[in-house]
């Protein structure tokens, strides 16, 4: 049977493109993509690159992971773009950091993009550390712990290998619910990843064991869990998006001199202005360490080596 076209070629082409896009972005789609080995894959969305690393270690080539926050962007100030929302629209699940984190601001947009999306909290079961309040250094070191539903908690749980074990188990549980037929494969991947985490923990512990001065100054307080795990003490410059006043900067400079701190650690996602002011006053240096790097294991080991070198002087 022949079909007679009554529209112009441009109109027909536009219709085909729109039909293709709408079919590819249906939120009801499940596991229809194939990888290079012709296996069905799960579309999973995560918030940040370290989570992508965790999901891929457990899911292997049976997952395709979309990252909500692009590399080099600070999650706390990020607004999802149309591209990220299109990725959400074809995802079976969104695995979040959880707790009182930056993700809460996105949830209405996320759910609008895909009403059938399963939200998985990778941090379920983790007791969080309270975000530091104020800028005086006596408040910077609080290890008071809060339940997840309380306000002002530190979301940076991915910087602790011990806590990543819990996140890995939560991710594994989510994947076997989505794809129970491949539980054995996910279980094997999980066991291998736990082994990697234990080896990494031993290497970091070895790198940091000889450090005598265990206090460090950092611009953004991302390292609470890492510091707690390895018996370090974080002194942040900025807290919850607020830079210190001139008086608080003076206190930090005085403390750095008293503690013989010569290095100010910064994240590449943040301004370095205050850090450079302090570094200049103490005749020190500013060094960038990234808590959001995609190759999570290699990055955390590298950071421990930087700490060992710079704090051990």
Description:
By secondary structure, this protein is of the alpha/beta class. The protein folds into 2 domains: 27-202, 3-Layer(aba) Sandwich (Rossmann fold), CATH 3.40.50; 210-311, 3-Layer(aba) Sandwich (Rossmann fold). 43% of the residues lie in helices and 13% in strands. It is built from 11 helices and 11 strands. The protein has helices spanning 9-24, 49-59, 82-89, 107-113, 137-140, 161-178, 183-208, 224-229, 246-258, 273-281, 296-311, and strands at residues 33-34, 40-46, 63-67, 93-96, 118-121, 128-129, 145-146, 215-218, 233-236, 263-266, 285-288. The strands form 3 sheets. Strands 1, 2, 3, 4 and 5 form a 5-stranded mixed β-sheet that branches. Strands 9-8-10-11 form a 4-stranded parallel β-sheet. α2 links the parallel β2 (40-46) and β3. α2 crosses α7 and α9 (246-258) packs across α10 (273-281). The longest helix is centred in the middle third of the chain and has 26 residues, at 183-208. The chain is globular, with a radius of gyration of 23 Å.
List the SSEs and their pairings.
Elements: H1 9-24, E1 33-34, E2 40-46, H2 49-59, E3 63-67, H3 82-89, E4 93-96, H4 107-113, E5 118-121, E6 128-129, H5 137-140, E7 145-146, H6 161-178, H7 183-208, E8 215-218, H8 224-229, E9 233-236, H9 246-258, E10 263-266, H10 273-281, E11 285-288, H11 296-311
Parallel strand pairs: 2-3, 2-4, 4-5, 8-9, 8-10, 10-11
Antiparallel strand pairs: 1-2, 6-7
Helix pairs in contact: 2-6, 2-7, 6-7, 7-11, 9-10
């Amino acid at each position: 049977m022949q079909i007679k076209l009554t529209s112009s070629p441009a109109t027909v082409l536009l219709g085909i493109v729109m039909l293709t896009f709408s079919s590819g972005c249906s939120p009801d789609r499940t596991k229809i993509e194939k990888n290079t080995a012709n296996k069905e894959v799960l579309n999973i969305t995560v918030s940040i690159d370290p989570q992508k690393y965790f999901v891929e270690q457990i899911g292997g080539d049976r997952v395709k992971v979309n990252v909500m926050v692009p590399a080099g962007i600070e999650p706390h100030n990020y607004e999802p773009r149309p591209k990220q929302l299109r990725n959400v629209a074809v995802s079976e699940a969104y695995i979040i950091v959880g707790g009182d984190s930056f993700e809460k601001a996105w949830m209405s947009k996320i759910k609008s993009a895909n009403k059938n999306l399963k939200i998985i909290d990778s941090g379920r079961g983790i007791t969080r550390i309270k975000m530091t309040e104020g800028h005086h250094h006596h408040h910077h070191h609080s290890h008071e712990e809060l339940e997840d539903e309380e306000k002002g908690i530190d979301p940076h749980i991915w910087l602790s290998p011990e806590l990543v074990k819990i996140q890995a188990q939560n991710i594994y549980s989510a994947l076997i619910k989505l794809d129970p037929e491949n539980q054995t494969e996910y279980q094997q991947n999980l066991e291998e990843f736990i082994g990697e985490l234990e080896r990494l923990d031993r290497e970091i512990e070895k790198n940091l064991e000889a450090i005598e001065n265990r206090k460090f100054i950092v611009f953004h307080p991302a390292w609470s869990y890492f510091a707690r795990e390895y018996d370090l003490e974080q002194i942040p410059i900025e807290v919850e998006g607020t830079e210190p006043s001139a008086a608080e900067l003076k206190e930090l400079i005085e403390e750095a001199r008293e503690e013989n701190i010569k290095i100010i650690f910064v994240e590449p996602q943040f301004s370095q202005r205050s850090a450079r002011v302090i570094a200049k006053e103490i005749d020190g240096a500013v060094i960038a360490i990234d808590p959001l790097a995609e190759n999570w294991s290699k990055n955390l080991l590298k950071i421990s080596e930087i700490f060992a070198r710079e704090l051990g002087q």
